Amino acid sequence: MDAVKVTTSNPIASDRQSRFAAAYRVLEEAIAARLFPGCAFGVLAKDKIVLEGALGRFTYEDDAPAVLSQTIFDVASLTKVVATTAMTMLLFQRGQLNLEQSLSEFLPAFAERRPAADPALHITLRHLLAHSSGLPGYVEFFRTCGTPEALLKACMELSLQAEPGTHAEYSDPGFILLGKALEAATHERLDSWVDHEVLKPLGLANTQFCPPPAMQSLIPPSEESTPLRDDPVQGVVHDDNAFVLKGVSGHTGVFSNIPDLLRFAAAILGAKPKRETASLFARETVEYFARRQGPGESSRAIGWDTPSPVSTAGNLFSSHSIGHLGFTGCSLWIDLDARVAVAHLSNRTWPRRPSGPSQLFRDVRAAFHDAVREAL
User: Fold this and answer.
1) How does pLDDT run across 214-249, given as a tens digit for each residue?
2) pTM for this one?
3) How far from the centroid of its chain's Cα atoms is residue 159's Cα?
4) Among 343, 349, 346, residue whose Cα is nearest residue 81
């Protein structure tokens, strides 16, 4: 399939495409290599959007819809920053949340069947945000749990693989529990709170959990089938654990597009929402959550990731950068020093998810980011 480029008679847009020709080339070659059928991408630099573009189609079929820069994707684990961490940042900023509080303070059921000496009782919100809780990285709850209640119960009963604070392992169960803890803290569903406290104030009209049926065909499909579902997954959450949780979870579930993600990045960089006199996220809050937490050489900050020595952010994002990846093929990186943000959305899991870590896809991500930064 030939790559589908965005065509425009707008000379400004054409000039931008020429300026970022190397970045386009990286993505065109990735599509030709069938790393993903299509993608959308955008760049924010010093408070201005300097690039919004798209390439390819929803699937590898020649008659599939073309991806546009406004196309909405399942952003997978970008949910962890756009929703769950953003919610935590605002509650912390307002003095309504202490990151040293234990998980069991919010979820007493987490402690119910555990002996007093169980180190799991010492897991704090900070541990969950920094992926240092000792909880396992991934558990296929969906294979034995058919309801949200059953899945949450199984998550509550997990045994630790390490003592809290001693080992860093990226943990989806940790963010499932964090999302539930935030719901307990606010007495409100995660999706509802995020909608009226984050999405609406920032004008993120295309960002949401659980897109309505009328929107689903406008979203690129993420996989032909999953271990839990035989039909193509389109417009509903790709992650099977989140599917059991009815599409709303702290670890994944958000759908968004490039304009909204750049607007969110602008808010992290201190932009003020329309008609507001102050930024949604205070600079001090962003700086606090951007600090690496350890243990050891872990790149994890508080909810966010930071560039590692060999990073998908490439070689040109400063050490004072934060970002996150999404399993479906999405990424968002924000350089707090240079005031640059780069968002990239794709459905690399179509038609089938990779069987393991894809070094080639990591290389494409890094090369794309390097090409963008060099163009700036």
Assistant:
1) 999 999 999 999 999 999 999 999 999 999 999 999
2) 0.95
3) 26
4) 343
